[in-house]
Amino acid sequence: MNELQAMMRRQYPGQTWADVARRDGDLPPVLAQQSNPAQDLRDIPFARYTDQAFFELEMERMWKRVWQFACREEHLAEVGDWVVHDIGRLSAVIVRTEEGLRGYVNSCLHRGTKLKPSHAAGWSGSIRCPFHSWEWNLDGTLKGMPCSFEFPQLDREKACLPQVRVDSWNGMVFVNFSAEGPSLLEYLQVLPEHFANWDLTGWYVATHVRKHLPSNWKVALEAFMEAYHTPYVHPEMTNVVGDHNMQHDIFSDHVSRDLCAMASPSPTAAAPWSEQQLLDSMLVGDGAMVGERPRVPEGRTARWVMAEQLRTQMQEKHGLDYSGHSVPEMIDSLKYHVFPNLLVYPAPGLCLVQHFRPDGHDRDRAIFDQLVLHPRPRDGNFEVAEVVEIGEDDSFASIPSMDPFLASVLDQDTDIMRWQREGMYASAKGAETLSTYQESRIRHLHDTLDKYVGE
């Protein structure tokens, strides 16, 4: 335990995440680890969110060089399936070929027209430009064009679509616009080791909501990297979610995490609930993954009951054996951040993927994708969810497939973002002051960003 974590224990005696998690048994080694190095406690200038020049630096020096989540593998299940990934003005077409996944710059070699529309997906046997019908095979080689005799200067053998790097890990597809730099596995650093027991390849996207937000992409992401705000933005959660006593770990430039206990009260809760009250009122998470609440046996916790119930359900409905998984591995919010913009929650009781990016080339607007994952049915029959797009004033609660309580929490999180953006522009101070521990991963995000943009 480092100095910051010792401070948290003094402030909230006996209420660290690890204390709560160990009440129901030993922790697996990857969850028993704690890592939160001391940081420079400088203020973070608001110009990093509001300044167009800094936004341009991010685009040129960071987004062009990092591995970024593009889609799940089930989006590219068949040869000919394609997905477009856009970031700022960069755009790639990712396609399943006979040889595997390929990624191409989404621009025709004739007059530059986009080959596929932004944020779209579909199936085609080739890649054809919608303007003049130049056409490429799925392997990127030129198939043909109208009036080919008009182009005697074109070397058809060399007229292949320029490639971008594409790779996949744990059912997730990543793209990198740079031909140089680390491989995906090198970039993910400790993540494959941590996820060795958390296989998401047998899961699929059951709900996919894309919300357009009135904020810089970092404002949107950072709202999900701390729970300091929870008792004030989500007061209904304080009885059932450990927020201020979350564990925050920083493992490497590209990987950090927070661990949040479900069915455990916040240190700010007015009065402790009984274990039965915790179980009966445990509404946070993916409601489709839990059933009716039984009685809490003597000497057991609500958390233990929830985990046992979920293990049984996963075995009976999906043939998945989670008997070796600890209680926190089953039900807690185990949220891993992959720099720059991806959050992955592997616990079956709250299995999510979230990612955040600029909305077009606008520093003041962001896209937030919320993907809820479910295990694939035993019979193999499932339908990957279509993307549902909503605007700033639309509610997650309006999406029928969203768990109502989770949707309400997301609405509360995103409703505050315009206030934060406008406050940054209005600020006389011109900078934010982050807490030493609960917001340490936000500071770490900016530390890593500095290594890319060179400031």
UniProtKB/TrEMBL annotation:
Domain Rieske, first and last residues per copy: 67-175
CDD domains assigned: RHO_alpha_C_MupW-like, Rieske_RO_Alpha_N
GO molecular function: dioxygenase activity
Keyword line: 2Fe-2S, Dioxygenase, Iron, Iron-sulfur, Metal-binding, Oxidoreductase
InterPro entries with a match to the protein in the record: Rieske_2Fe-2S, Rieske_2Fe-2S_sf, Ring_hydroxy_dOase_asu_C_dom, Rng_hydr_dOase-A
Protein name: Aromatic ring-hydroxylating dioxygenase subunit alpha
Cofactor(s) needed by this chain: Fe cation
PROSITE patterns: RIESKE
